[in-house]
Amino acid sequence: MKIRHVITLLAMLQLALLPAAAFQADAAALAHYKDKAIVLMYHDLAYAESKTRSATITPARLGSHLKTLKDNGYNVISIEQFYDFMLNGGKVPENAVVLTFDDGYESFYSLAAPVLKKYGMKAANFVIGSSTDLNDKETKHMTWEQMKKLKKEGFSFYSHTYDLHYYAPLNEKGTRTGPALMHRIYSAARGGQETLNEYKARVASDLNLMESKLAGQLGNTYQMLSYPYGEYNNMSKKLAKEAGIGLFFTIEPGINQAGDDTVRRINAGTPAMSGAKLLETLRAYDQPL
């Protein structure tokens, strides 16, 4: 009799737990938004975080973010699917998320990619062409061979300009500076600022060189640009469009919907962003369905 009572109690306990389990499954499958996409932005990874490196996180923190996305019903899509959604009438699943990295650091190859592959997710990296070709920067950058290997595994690489990722002098004393993509820079050799035509020629040459590199080295057919420092103006965007670039990534936060060629991104690649904080940030974009 006692054994039968124990079995009965266990069965009743299991039945009592079923609604909670079902509720958890429903919560994970919840549609937070549809016909929109959130783009997350990351930069560098290292085994230790530092207050002086606000754009560097550990592989463990990245893993906590990916687990948060997976556990809460977010669907990571490729940047190419996102491009087609934004500009070509393509579709995206509910709760669509795109993962992007800027600058082309070597840590994307050695530290980020293994974590991404563990969760079955892909990401895009906006690389600085000169940092790859010269590889003389303080922080190591990926080689073309490393990018080729990752591209075969489903990762993507696009432009962060060839060599316009710096603040240039805008006057003789250098007391005014600005992103080289946006401004007519001061040249001591010529004793003044570039002319408008010189500025256009410099920027167009850089953007076209980078697109040529990406096509020749990686076989790219899509063309996208992450603005250095997230800054842009009408002229820089016009020159990029003339280079064939169709989609432009900023650092302005927000959610994206089809028909816009300017992409908003949420900065997730900071030590201040825990998995719980990321979820809170994403849930702010929930919409009634």
Automatic annotation (TrEMBL):
Gene3D superfamilies: Glycoside hydrolase/deacetylase
NodB homology domain segment(s): 95-289
PROSITE patterns in UniProt: NODB
Pfam families from the UniProt entry: Polysacc_deac_1
Signal peptide positions on this chain: 1-27
Keyword terms of this UniProt record: Signal
Entries under CDD domains matching the protein: CE4_NodB_like_5s_6s
Name assigned to this protein: Polysaccharide deacetylase family protein
Natural source organism: Paenibacillus thailandensis
Lineage, highest ranks first: Bacteria, Bacillati, Bacillota, Bacilli, Bacillales
